[in-house]
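I hope you will forgive my troubling you with a question about protein structure. I am sending you one protein, given as its amino acid sequence and as whole-number tokens for its backbone shapes. Thank you for your consideration; the sequence and its tokens are set out here:
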Amino acid sequence: MFTVAAHAGIWRIGPPVRTIAPMGNGPTRAQPLMLITPVRRLWAVWLRLSWPPAEHVWPVRTITKRPLDRLRFIHFAHWGLLTRMPPRGGRRLPRPYIVFQTNFNGDANAYIDAFAILIPSRMRLLYQGAFGFPGPRRRGPLRRFVLGGAEPEPHFYCAYPDASVKMILSGLAVEEALEELRRAARAGNDAAFATRWSRFLVKHGNDL
């Protein structure tokens, strides 16, 4: 199993495509998607060569993941290359598979469209060698490719099921800013604290 991870959420004519219902033991803002896609064996070689720089070489990593960071509805996204089953010491599969797993907020169709609009070239670098991949420009076929090949998720974990990605990021930003305010309060300078408090409200008012 060879993996690369990224951390951290319209135009179509024709019959409706399958959507993914939210899963879990209770109400949650996040929903999972798992796509297992067969690829040509030579394409697997390309993935093995291209994924390490995307994960470990700083300039390449930044270029690759910055657009995903802008999609502030993705809790988690992970790609893996499966060539044996079981992955360690198992039999070689007739063809390799890309395993894509993600948790995100919102509608699955909007999620797919966002990838196609913002990172079409990166989608080609990942899936151009996949059987049946229609390319990122044709939104209807792309949705059918993804949702039609999606596998049911029997279980997924979400640390904050009541919060969206934007809410979590806002909470982290406020927590960091509050720690700076605590340090300013301990300093005992009322005027300096008042200035910091005003700046805090201006900067983080929308996060509260």
